[in-house]
Amino acid sequence: MNSTIEQLLNDQIKYEAQASMQYMAMASWADAKGYSGVSNFFYAQSEEERMHMTKLVKFVNERGGNVIIPSLDQPEADFGGLLALFEKFLSSEIFVTEKINHIIYECLQKKDYNVHNFMQWYVTEQLEEEATARTLLDKLNIIGDNTSGYYLFDRDIEILAAEG
Ligand code: OFO
């Protein structure tokens, strides 16, 4: 495996792991505040990102690359409210999308079509996750300061989390 691509995939392992821990912190914050729907949503997101990380670890190993399991930064744990929480969700997903796009770009430069093909799964996944984050943020912007709206939002997102 090309060493630049190997490095980028290892970096991506870290970003996915970091996202998983960030969403765990967000789930825990929501849990402590009594938003059970929001917390279940982020517990599930945390699991998903862990799966994204594992998929990369297995792929790099299959390709005979060298996997480095990274140490992680402390995730952000304090959020002013649901709006700030979901803004963090969207910015985190946008960050990951940019990193994935960069890997795709490098794959084309280095003519590594195998990794390019593998990464298409992540491109599709990111499209979905960014769309979900934007939809939820739109809803929160409509709700504004209406606390009974928060109650309904939490109830609705519980359904979304259950659907996976
Ligand atoms: Fe949504 O971050 Fe993984 O791919």
TrEMBL record:
Region forming the signal peptide: none
Gene Ontology biological process terms in this record: intracellular iron ion homeostasis; iron ion transport
Transmembrane portions of the chain: none
Catalytic activity: 4 Fe(2+) + O2 + 6 H2O = 4 iron(III) oxide-hydroxide + 12 H(+)
Keyword Iron: yes
SUPFAM superfamilies: Ferritin-like
A UniProt-annotated Pfam family: Ferritin
Domain Ferritin-like diiron: 1-144
Enzyme class label: oxidoreductase
Binding of Fe cation, residues: 16, 49, 52, 93, 126
Function: Iron-storage protein.
Entry's family note: Belongs to the ferritin family. Prokaryotic subfamily.
UniProt-recorded name of the protein: Ferritin
Organism: Aureitalea marina
